[in-house]
Amino acid sequence: MNLDFYRTPIALSDPGSQAALLDDLPHGPERLAGVVQGLLMHQHVAPSYPVTLGDAQIEQSHVRPLEEMLKQIVAHDARPLAQARPADERQVGVCRHFSLMHVAMLRRQGIPARARCGFAAYFTKGKHLDHWVTEYWNEARSAWILSDAQLDPHQQALFKVPFDPVDVPRDQFRVAGDCWRLCRTGKAEPMDFGVLDLFGWWMIAGNVVRDIAALNNLEMLPWDCWGPMPRPGEDPDFALFDRLAVLSQDPDSHWDELRDAYATTLAVPPQVVNAVRNRIEPT
Length: 283
Fold this sequence. Notes:
By secondary structure, the chain is of the alpha+beta class.
């Protein structure tokens, strides 16, 4: 078990010059998730609040480092982070931003936490949609627990979520490697995994890479592309992803192999393709 690796904010989860903002926050996964929900607005769920986003707000979804997110939040509203912002004045992001901020806050309190990339079953019936959550170490249970920091009471009602968002069942959110293996063994269909009109093997493979990067403390944007990720509609290297899926399903049992696979095959390069903006960007 490598709990210390996930105990301190680093790289994209490092608050940097804004670190003091994470002090004096409520303690624990549930209360910190509430703080996150008062600061962030999901780009694609905003209309249900109802909030209409401007172009500048939508661009906030492309911010990668937590430090920059925090800078933008306090530049707009200098109050302490524990004070929820009005819905139409929150920083805009997607599930990855909720998870990244939640992870950083938990780590600031010494709680091991990591972002996980995969697919959720609770947004659209019969489909597993591209999604990110937090995985935190529960000392009392000696286990990693999934938590969806995006699911505020409004979204719990909107999506009819039947479980506690601080303890997401493993069959409701599956890490990408688990989804890959379900499909490879014929227990699920790859065209049931994706988002918008983007479904299939290539989507699952891309999220396997993003999940392993996150396990190595680089939580990239959901549309950042690099390395062996297949292009839309392109067949992945099945042998490679069979191996990667096993490593990411149970990262603690395959720690050395996981780290080696990331370093030799999957490492995030200095530049990646932002598939939404359709351009190369520095990381």
